[in-house]
Design a protein that fits this description.
One of its GO terms (molecular function) is endonuclease activity. This is HNH endonuclease. Keywords: Endonuclease, Hydrolase, Nuclease. It holds the Pfam family HNH. By secondary structure, the chain is α+β, with helices and mostly antiparallel strands. It has a domain of about 60 residues. Strands 1-2 form a two-stranded antiparallel ribbon. It is globular, with a radius of gyration of 18 Å. About 15% of the residues are buried. The chain binds zinc ion. Zinc ion binds next to helix 2 and helix 3. The site of zinc ion has 9 residues, from helix 2 and helix 3.
């Protein structure tokens, strides 16, 4: 699911920097007690590394609290890849750290056999 933003109606957003930015980040992370919202939704407990913008500032999103969510680094990489249309995320792993390639040894079931397929 991807949201579209009418960039023509929104002005470029300047995010808070310095002390004000740190305070804002701390307050936002406190909303989920410092945990990743996406992992929480899946029953996982992982510390959030990033306060992410749901609609990226680069795509005309606002810097309001309602437009932010707390994410761990794997989740952040994943949603960023989705938002900006990359085929796969940076390190080739999913949010659980499992390799995405189907022929990766971790994803192979049973023995490889090494023989020919009929
Ligand atoms: Zn996460």
């Amino acid at each position: 699911m991807r949201r579209r933003v009418d960039v023509s109606t929104s002005r470029p957003v300047e995010r808070l920097r310095g002390r004000a930015g740190q305070k804002q980040r701390k307050r936002r992370l406190a909303r989920t007690r410092g945990l990743c919202e996406r992992c929480l939704a899946r029953g996982l407990t992982r510390l959030a590394d990033v306060v992410d913008h749901v609609v990226p500032l680069a795509l005309g999103g606002s810097d309001d609290d309602q437009n932010t969510r707390n994410l761990c680094e794997p989740c952040h990489l994943e949603v960023t890849a989705e938002q900006f249309g990359f085929a796969s995320i940076g390190k080739g792993v999913d949010a659980n750290g499992r390799p995405l390639l189907s022929d990766h040894p971790w994803n192979a079931r049973g023995g490889t056999g090494g023989g020919s397929k009929v």
